[in-house]
Amino acid sequence: MNSCGMSDYAGRFAFEVGLPAKSGISGGMLIVIPNVMGICTWSPLLDDHSNSVRGVNFCKKLVEEFNFHYYDSLIQNIEKTDPRLSAEYVYGLKYSRIFTAAASGDLSALKRYCQCGDIKAADYDQRTALHVAAAEGMSLLLPIPVL
Hints:
Strand content: 5-15%
Structural class: alpha+beta
Number of helices: 6
Helix content: 40-55%
């Protein structure tokens, strides 16, 4: 399905969407999200490759919002939602990165991660990232304004 399911558009679809799919000339499309689910769409408006225009657009929007593309796991994009992960795991992953950046004194990473999370967040001992930075002797990070 990944190499020939979308007719002449298969290679580009695999690169842009990263999900196995099969389209038919009636406008039907079957998309597989491995180990999660299968989705079927139908819209008779076809493009130049005889694929459903709305089905392809749906797939592109799906991988923009959710972490389903084959290569999303390589870059660990924390802005995309991964419905396969529990909320507790996602919370822990997000804030462990903030605490690790604070402990190692990586100011640029700390700023980047704090755009996606809250620098005032506390761990199981109610310590914030600034507490961790102070405990590790990272005095360069301590003047960070906490609003």
